[in-house]
Amino acid sequence: MNVSPDLTIHNLRELPILIQNLENIRAVIFDIDGTLSRGKIVAKLFSDVLAELSIKTFDIQSTLGSKNWFTQSWLSQNLSITSAQAEQVIELTKERFLQLSVEQINEDLYEETVEILSELKELGLVLGIFTMRHWQLALHQITYSSVSNYLDQQATLISNSSMRITGSHIEEMNSKNGFAEKVAQLELHLKDLPNLHSTEIAVVGDIITTDIASAKQLEMVAILIQR
What we know:
2 domains, 5 strands, alpha/beta
């Protein structure tokens, strides 16, 4: 997929001035892993579960945000394990993640995340997320981290009218590849923000084939973060 971002930054601290210079941007949608959060907690919990169950591991950090790996079908196929084993891995990882404290969740955020979200909020921007992460893990992290103080309910795909992403559409969306799923999520954002045109929305992410490509597909401003 030959896609180029509209803009590239190396730290979230560059974002407020960049957004102000764009002038017409009214909303910013963020990816989670590799953008707002390191994703290391999920990777460690997952690796620990695999080790305890004597299942071969893989470089999960490299797949965060680019593949929908946290599904029974993907794990069964790529780890050569049964569906029952894959389900056990998923359930144990979810169970342990949902037991994490607020402090542990906040520690996984990049140092500048909360500061920059606060600055963008002061500019009057609508802030939201889109993510490849399993909905229960995303919901827990967003609800119990400092990020929740700055996200707009109508632009958060795990709350308000967009609960459909965790309800009737969850299986359908989990079956899509990364690019298609992120396009679907951004389309839901457009539906939930009817007063905004796609060109007034900036999307910030770290994966070209999913985050950037989906934004470009919908004619949003695609901002790549390369840390």
